[in-house]
Structure formats: structure tokens, C-alpha cells
Amino acid sequence: MILPIVGYGHSILRKPTQDIDNTYPDIKQLIDDMFETMYSAYGVGLAAPQINLPISLLVIDATPFKEKYPEAEGFKIAMINPHIIEESGKEWAFEEGCLSVPGIHEDVMRKSNVTVKFLDSDFNEQTIGLDGVKARVFQHEYDHLQGKVFVDRLSNIRRAFLKRKLNEIVNGSVRVDYKMLRSIKPKHR
Ligand code: NI
After folding, report:
1. Residue 46 Cα to ligand 1 middle (Å)
2. How far away, in angstroms, is 128 Cα from ligand 1 center?
3. CA distance 83 to 123
4. Buried (b) or exposed (e) across 60-88, using 16+ Cβ within 10 A?
5. Is 96 an active-site residue?
6. Which of 36, 67, 106, 141 is catalytic?
């Protein structure tokens, strides 16, 4: 089932999420729905707050980046309760976008390597090391679980420059090709 995606300005995107345990109902169906929602919007990652759920769950499929970053091919994963154990390496710039922040694509600086502990969809504990674009997509989604959006990581000057565009997302005047849950109902559509 394709779910509506929460737009920038909605309070759930600012709320740190809670870890869940294996009593959480229908987790596999939820993960399937998140993948389906992500693919339908041509995204490479989706975090639970973006479908209006305040839980620590994210899905990633970085395959669309494979032309430029061959290692991205087949990097498809669902992570429950991910926690960063270590972040290391040099900071590098990568142009990020977000299904919750349509129409904005900006270079963001993040470290190159990350080690993550998480539960897979069977609630088995896993630890993985990620680098390059795989680390990047994860870091972006992980931010969502902390109540952060990538534009928070831009310089004040850059954010000021984007203010009008961000306000247009908040007030619903930006068109998107997927169903969006907004904090304010669009006036005209
Ligand atoms: Ni995002």
C-alpha cells in the first residue's frame, strides 16, 4: 500500500523517534509498504516519520545511484532501531534531496564512514560498516529518526536563501507527483 509522505513543516519530522520491539504489529507489512511508497516516489530512502509514524524504522534502496556509484547497486535494506556506533573518515559533499522537501537539492557535508547496529526485519541484531554513497543515504535517513532534516545541516546563508522555497512547501504551493501529508491544507490545487 502506498502511503502519503509527510511534507516539510509537519511537526512529526521534528520529533525524535522511539525504538520498537518485536511486539510491534505487522512490521513486515509496514516495511513492504514503506518500500512501495519510496519506489512510487522515486526515492532512495524513507524513514518512518515521513509516513507519520514516530518509530525507529527506515528503508533504503540506493540502486538508482549505481551509474555514478557502482557500489550502490543492490544496497537494499530495512533497519529497525538503527544506532550509529561510529562515524569516521573525511567529510565530503554530496547533493542530497528528500521526498519531504520536494524541489530542493543541496550539497551536504558528512563523514564518509559509519558503523551501524540495527535489527533486521526478523528482529535479529546486525552490525554493518557503510561508506561512500551507502553511508550517505543511511546518514540522511538516520537524521530523520532524530527529528532532523537535511536542510538543517546547511549554512545559515544557504538556508536563508532557501527560505521562500521552504515556505512554499510548508504552505502547500509546491506541486508533487505523490500524495503528500501537509501541516497546512493547500489553498488551491
Ligand atoms: Ni529525507
Report:
1. 6
2. 21
3. 14
4. bbbeebeeebeebeebebbbbbbeeeeee
5. no
6. 141
CA of 86 to the centre of ligand 1 (A): 21
For the domain that residue 163 is a member of, what is the CATH number? 3.90.45.10
CB 18 within 8 A of CB 55: yes
Q: What is the tally of structural domains in the chain?
A: 1
| Residue 188 forms part of a structural domain | no
pTM of the model: 0.95
In order along its 189 residues, the chain shows pLDDT tens digits of: 999 999 999 999 999 999 999 999 999 999 999 999 999 999 999 999 999 999 999 999 999 999 999 999 999 999 999 999 999 999 999 999 999 999 999 999 999 999 999 999 999 999 999 999 999 999 999 999 999 999 999 999 999 999 999 999 999 889 999 999 987 665 554
* 12/16 Cα distance (integer angstroms): 8
189 assigned to some structural domain? no
